[in-house]
Structure formats: C-alpha cells, structure tokens
Automatic annotation (TrEMBL):
Family matches, as Pfam families: Acyl-CoA_dh_2, Acyl-CoA_dh_N
Keyword Flavoprotein: yes
Full protein name: FMNH2-dependent monooxygenase
GO annotation (BP), single: L-leucine catabolic process
Organism annotation: Streptomyces sviceus (strain ATCC 29083 / DSM 924 / JCM 4929 / NBRC 13980 / NCIMB 11184 / NRRL 5439 / UC 5370)
Coiled-coil features, chain-numbered ranges: none
Keyword Translocase: no
Domain Acyl-CoA dehydrogenase/oxidase N-terminal, chain residue ranges per copy: 28-115
GO molecular function annotation: 3-methylbutanoyl-CoA dehydrogenase activity; flavin adenine dinucleotide binding; monooxygenase activity
Keyword terms of this UniProt record: Flavoprotein, Monooxygenase, Oxidoreductase
Domain Acyl-CoA dehydrogenase C-terminal: 245-379
InterPro entries: Acyl-CoA_DH_C, Acyl-CoA_Oxase/DH_mid-dom_sf, AcylCo_DH-like_C, AcylCoA_DH/ox_N, AcylCoA_DH/ox_N_sf, AcylCoA_DH/oxidase_NM_dom_sf
C-alpha cells in the first residue's frame, strides 16, 4: 500500500467541515483501493492501514478540537465509515468500531471519565479495539483492593490486535453488573489470538482474546461512582449507534462494488456475441441492472442519512433521552439495517451479471465485496430487525434494550 500521501496530510491544515472530512476520507479510500484485492488475499494484520487512518486524522474525528480532534458528530462519522468501506470493507469496519469504542466512555461513563478519555485519545491518536462480545459470558471481574481484575475469554475482539487501547467488559463477581473499562492493549494478561479465519472481513482482526488477570483501577470502571453504577437511558444507545455503523459500512461496500464493477464493465467486459451490440455498456440488460442497483443503493443511503440525523438529536442531549425516544430510534435503525442488508447483498451478488464470466478471476477480487457483506450481515439475524419494526407498527411495541436491540 502506498503511503506517499501521508506526508502531505501531515503538512496540510486539518479539515474543518463535515464535507472536508468526508473528502479526506475519500482520499484515504483512494489509497486503500490501489491494492485492496491483494491485501484481502494476503490477509495480513493491517498495521499500515490503521496508521494510514491515524496519519489522515480520521481516528480523532469525534474528538474535541481543543485536544486535536475533529469536533465532528455522528452524522459525519457514519459518512466517513461509508467512504472508507467503499475501498476496503474491513478497514471501514475497524474505523466504525473504533468510533463506537471512542464514544463508549460518553455513552456509559461519568462526565469526568469521558472528558478525560476523549482528550487523551485525541492528543495521542489512540486506536480503539473492543473485547465485548455479548454472547460470551465467561469474563468475570473480581475486586482486589482498589483494582478490578478481568479473567476469561471472548471469542471476538475486533481490532484489538492493531489497537492502542481495548475496551473490556465482564460481570462483577457475585452480581449481575457489567463493568466496562479501557485498558492499554499491551496490558499484562491480555492475549490476542490469530484465529480469525473467515471468508470475509479478513483484515478486521476479529479473533479471540484471553484475559488472564488483566488489572485496571476501580476508577476506570465506566459509569461507576464509589463502586456504584449510575444508569441512564442514554447508556443503552450503544446498540443503535453501532448498528448504524454496520449499516454504513454495508452501504459503503455496496457502493464500492458498484463502482468497481462499472469500471470493469466499461474497460473489460465484452458484449454478448448474440446481443447485437459492440460494447457491453450499450446492452439494455446491462444498463437496466446498473440503474436498478444504483436506485436501490441511493434509496438506502438516503434512509441511512435520515436516521443518522434523528440519532444525532439524541446524542446532542443525552440527559433528555427517554425510553420512548430511544425505542422509536431503535425501530428506525432496525428498518434501515434490514434494508441495507438486503441491498448490499443484492448489489454485491448481481454485479457479476453485468461484468461477465472473466470477472470472477481471483486477480480481479470482485468476490470480496459479497464475502465481506455476507460475513458481517450474519452478526445478528436480520429477521429480528424486521420483527422490531413489525411489532412497533402493529402494537406500538418498543424494542426492549438488549445487547442486540
């Protein structure tokens, strides 16, 4: 991967507006796109790719400007994730998860905690990973004086191997209280495993992690004051927030698939010998397919942007978030998650209809778009997202806040 652009970013003024940040993300995506297929095939740990995100300033997008951050909101973050995912779905996922974990202190922690975390993370350009897979319930947190000690295993820890800090989650021994804390990724007892070997999202470093007595001060337990958690409805906004991250890197992958396929069709596809056209781009079936897929993608993107704007209103006034406003927002997120899943799977599959048999060559790498979408859309069943919407329509039922809703 070429890093020639990085020096230029270091000497240019930082973007100041949302559009400038999205344009910066497009520049980063152009660098990632140059060898995306080869990197996907190699499956190497993406240290250089994460450094690229740091050099471009994207990792501090949500941070306070007074400490070197971009001072942007979630509507911009989602668009940035979408741009990066057009070139590389894995790196789009890593960046999106990073934004969620960067924001986690604000979602769960006290004001003192999140102000400290965001300032330091922005100054030092931390990259966040997370060992918070909710289906693994075997991480136990015990007390040892003024310390908490995490012991157990998580089967997924997206980004942690390439991160500076990792968000841990476990249950305080003898209670049902979950405890989140941020620890350095090189903490003693924290071991990341090279066991992520899936068909898609190969560069996300989403393998397992072992926690063998990882220690952190009680004062780092997010949202706890004098060892007592202070709950807010806003705490539960982590799920719809990360689900919108999913939506946007799905749509980014779909957009990248369409752009890459269109280039192939223009430059390499041969017209069908019995179709009566000299160029593939003149074939009515090809034109219709690109028009159909583009219209569906644009519609899903418009819905995603609208829902992101609705969510930003909740982020802007956390203390005003109620169970109803949170629930109504989750329903909207569920709806766009269902749409984005269907559209991204359709786009990444049907591009082969308009690129032709030769486009399936491994060297072209067009299969990576479908593999990436198919892999991550299995994160949680989309049928349950449609159920949330259906129950809301028929009964006015709000989704119960869980790890997935």
């Amino acid at each position: 991967m070429s890093t020639a652009t990085n020096t230029d970013w270091q000497t240019r003024p930082a973007p100041a507006t949302a559009q400038e940040w999205i344009a910066r993300a497009a520049e980063v995506a152009a660098v990632l796109a140059t060898d995306a297929a080869a990197r996907d095939h190699a499956g190497a740990t993406p240290y250089a790719e994460v450094q690229l995100l740091k050099d471009a300033g994207l990792v501090t997008l949500l941070g306070p400007t007074g400490h070197g951050g971009g001072g942007q909101d979630w509507t911009t973050a989602y668009r940035v994730v979408r741009e990066i995912a057009k070139a590389d779905g894995s790196i789009g996922q890593l960046l999106g998860y990073h934004y969620l974990w960067f924001w986690a202190a604000r979602l769960v922690g006290t004001r003192e905690q999140w102000e400290h975390v965001e300032a330091q993370a922005s100054r030092e350009r931390w990259f966040f990973g997370g060992a918070v897979n909710p289906r693994d319930k075997d991480v136990v947190v015990t007390e040892d004086g003024d310390d908490l000690v995490y012991t157990g295993r998580k089967s997924f820890s997206t980004g942690s191997k390439v991160s500076d800090v990792t968000v841990l989650e476990g249950v305080l021994e003898g209670t049902d209280q979950h405890v989140f804390a941020i620890v350095p990724s090189d903490s003693e007892g924290l071991t990341f495993h090279d066991d992520w070997d899936n068909i898609g999202q190969r560069l996300t470093e989403s393998g397992g992690v072992s926690l063998d007595g990882v220690r952190t001060p009680w004062s780092s337990a997010a949202g706890y004051v004098d060892k007592v958690f202070k709950p807010r409805v806003y705490n539960t906004l982590n799920v719809p927030t990360i689900q919108l991250v999913f939506v946007n890197f799905y749509l980014g992958i779909a957009g990248g698939a369409l752009e890459t396929a269109a280039t192939y069709t223009r430059e390499k596809s041969r017209s069908w010998l019995h179709g009566g056209f000299e160029r593939a781009v003149d074939e009515p079936y090809v034109i219709d397919t690109y028009g159909d897929l583009t219209a569906k993608l644009w519609a899903a993107e418009a819905l995603a942007d609208a829902v992101a704007a609705e969510g930003q209103k909740l982020h802007d006034d956390p203390d005003a978030v109620t169970e109803k406003t949170r629930g109504d927002f989750e329903v909207r997120v569920a709806a766009v998650k269902a749409r984005a899943t269907d559209v991204a799977l359709e786009v990444s599959n049907r591009i082969f209809e308009v690129t032709g048999a030769r486009s399936t060559a491994t060297s072209e790498g067009l299969d990576r778009f479908w593999r990436n979408v198919r892999t991550h859309t299995l994160h949680d069943p989309v049928a349950y997202k449609r159920r949330e919407v259906g129950r809301w329509v028929l009964e006015g039922e709000l989704p119960e806040p869980t790890w997935y809703s």
